[in-house]
């Protein structure tokens, strides 16, 4: 048995060592990449100043607004639909794969592997791969967001089921309830708030990601931002960015309100 | 009549959690199983409704061996065996009455159960059981809003609506304050008499066992160390 004083001084030493190691990695990294720390830091205000001057929307840029708004709605709908479809797929797969509701160890391992595969391929890579088969279309963006979201949601839902549903599941199993009765009467009602909370988070996230995907797939808000930017209509590009920020903040506010009600 | 003969269980090879456990319990008996933490009390209780598959032995409920039952038969046994948990194991987001009605699922077709369609008689019985456990004014309250003692009484009502022969209680009062604990023990004792139940409670408070139980079974390191009528202990302790 270690004495508490010894334990605490060990712990303090460990923390110092970890901070030193992280600092060391940073210094080494910037040496290798030839990253000039001081000039890098000084460049940040300059970049913002450039943004402020060039991206400032003017009265003249209001003419772009209807088009931006239309594309923005399209992008938000893309994010919502891909998240909803992903959530429906993920809940089924998570029920099959979780330790408490799952079929068997083999299926559980497979489900974990699939979820991790979809999650760990970057969104940009998914978009590029899917572009080959589905060309530049909304569907390509939808599929890229869907696959990525499925990966995240399966993992999250399995953890929620394991943490929140195992005790009530046991109780209903003991009453003689059948598997499907237990799932519908105990597991799903018990996990619903956490599941909804994750879906809301995923929608917020997918609105941001859909913008990026749109640049690659030539659709939605990302696409017109790209066009305005490359044709030097910076004021319109700035307007687009402002619109995106507005919608993302609005969505976050709405989903926080929903969370307050359901949790 | 519940007869347990030579029950064996090991979770890991050569580390028996239960060794040759045998006891008999008559209807109308409130039994306390006592023993230190890790003795094997939960393992015994969960073997009795086969939530844990034991390795060997016999568990006879009115002469029929539960251990050899197939899936359909097991469902029929389980609905005659109520279970009460230390952490209540209710669906906290649902209302009190919905949780009580869950005790009927074992009697329902899969579809009726999945959609939670209960008969008028079932709903009325749920209400009268809530009255019995003193919660008739809480029927439509969410379980998450109840106190520990109230939650445990919902758990007891859920097991009663199963029309059980046996109720298994795994540390039913460990999470409760002393007043609620007394209240729950008294309720269990009265119900045992009223419905002629076999009620088995894992406890680690020996004084509680002495105060309420008709029969006390002692377990240590997976072995049965005593099994006596409680009056015997009231005399010698
Ligand atoms: N799922 C399990 N896997 C492995 N060992 C277990 C498991 N459950 C219980 N045990 C072991 O079996 C023994 C009896 O446990 P348990 O029946 O829970 O005791 P009690 O309820 O009396 O505290 C303990 O040594 C415990 O560590
Ligand atoms: Mg235990």
TrEMBL record, chain A:
Membrane topology label: Multi-pass membrane protein
Domain of life: Bacteria
GO CC annotation terms, alphabetical: plasma membrane
Localization (cell): Cell membrane
SUPFAM superfamilies, sorted: MetI-like
PROSITE patterns for this protein: ABC_TM1 (PS50928)
Pfam families listed in its UniProt record: BPD_transp_1
Gene Ontology biological process terms, A to Z: transmembrane transport
Domain ABC transmembrane type-1: 72-255
Transmembrane regions listed in the UniProt entry: 12-32, 38-55, 76-98, 110-132, 139-158, 178-203, 210-230, 236-254
UniProt entry keywords in alphabetical sequence: Cell membrane, Membrane, Transmembrane, Transmembrane helix, Transport
Signal peptide: none
Location (main, coarse): membrane
Family: Belongs to the binding-protein-dependent transport system permease family.
Protein name: Phosphonate ABC transporter, inner membrane subunit
TrEMBL record, chain B:
Domain ABC transporter: 2-237
Gene3D superfamilies in the record: P-loop containing nucleotide triphosphate hydrolases
GO cellular component: membrane
Gene Ontology MF term list: ABC-type phosphonate transporter activity; ATP binding; ATP hydrolysis activity
Keyword Cell membrane listed: yes
Protein origin, superkingdom: Bacteria
SMART domains to which the protein is assigned, alphabetical: AAA
Keywords for this protein: ATP-binding, Cell membrane, Membrane, Nucleotide-binding, Phosphonate transport, Translocase, Transport
Cross-referenced NCBIfam families: ABC_phnC
The protein's name in its UniProt record: Phosphonates ABC transporter, ATP-binding protein
């Amino acid at each position: 048995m270690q004495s508490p004083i010894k334990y605490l001084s060990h712990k303090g030493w460990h923390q110092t060592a970890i901070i030193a190691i992280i600092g060391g990695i940073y210094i080494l990294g910037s040496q290798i990449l030839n990253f000039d720390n001081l000039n890098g830091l000084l460049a940040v205000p300059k970049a913002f100043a450039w943004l402020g001057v060039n991206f400032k929307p003017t009265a003249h840029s209001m003419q772009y607004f209807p088009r931006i708004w239309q594309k923005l709605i399209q992008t938000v709908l893309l994010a919502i639909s891909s998240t909803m479809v992903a959530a429906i797929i993920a809940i089924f797969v998570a029920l099959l794969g979780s330790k408490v509701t799952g079929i068997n160890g083999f299926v559980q391992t497979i489900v974990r592997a699939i979820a991790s595969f979809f999650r760990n391929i970057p969104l940009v890579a998914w978009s590029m791969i899917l572009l080959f088969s589905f060309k530049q279309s909304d569907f390509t963006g939808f599929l890229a967001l869907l696959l990525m979201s499925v990966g995240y949601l399966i993992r999250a839902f399995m953890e929620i089921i394991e943490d929140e549903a195992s005790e009530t599941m046991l109780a209903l199993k003991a009453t003689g309830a059948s598997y499907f009765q237990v799932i519908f009467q105990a597991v799903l009602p018990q996990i619903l708030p956490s599941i909804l909370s994750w879906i809301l988070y995923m929608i917020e996230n997918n609105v941001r990601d859909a913008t990026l995907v749109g640049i690659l797939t030539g659709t939605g808000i990302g696409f017109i931002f790209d066009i305005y930017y490359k044709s030097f209509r910076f004021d319109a590009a700035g307007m687009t960015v402002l619109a995106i920020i507005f919608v993302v903040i609005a969505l976050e506010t709405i989903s926080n309100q929903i969370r307050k009600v359901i949790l | 009549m519940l007869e347990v003969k030579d029950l064996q269980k090991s979770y890991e090879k050569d580390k028996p959690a239960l060794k040759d456990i045998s006891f008999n319990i008559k209807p109308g008996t409130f039994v306390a199983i006592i023993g230190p933490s890790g003795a094997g009390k939960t393992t015994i209780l969960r073997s009795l409704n086969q939530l844990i598959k034991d390795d060997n032995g016999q568990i006879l409920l009115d002469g029929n061996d539960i251990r050899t039952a197939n899936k359909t038969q097991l469902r029929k046994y389980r609905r005659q065996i109520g279970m009460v948990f230390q952490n209540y194991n209710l669906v906290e987001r649902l209302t009190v009455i919905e949780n009580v009605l869950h005790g009927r699922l074992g009697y329902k077709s899969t579809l009726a159960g999945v959609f939670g369609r209960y008969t008028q008689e079932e709903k009325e019985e749920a209400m009268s059981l809530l009255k019995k456990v003193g919660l008739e004014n809480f029927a439509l309250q969410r379980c998450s809003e109840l106190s520990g003692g109230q939650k445990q009484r919902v758990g007891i009502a859920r097991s009663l609506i199963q029309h059980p022969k046996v109720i298994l209680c795994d540390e039913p009062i460990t999470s409760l304050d002393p007043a609620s604990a007394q209240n729950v023990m008294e309720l269990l004792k009265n119900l045992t008499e009223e419905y002629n139940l076999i009620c088995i409670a894992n406890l680690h408070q020996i004084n509680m066992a002495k105060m309420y139980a008709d029969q006390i079974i002692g377990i240590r390191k997976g072995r049965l160390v005593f099994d006596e009528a409680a009056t015997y202990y009231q005399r010698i302790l």
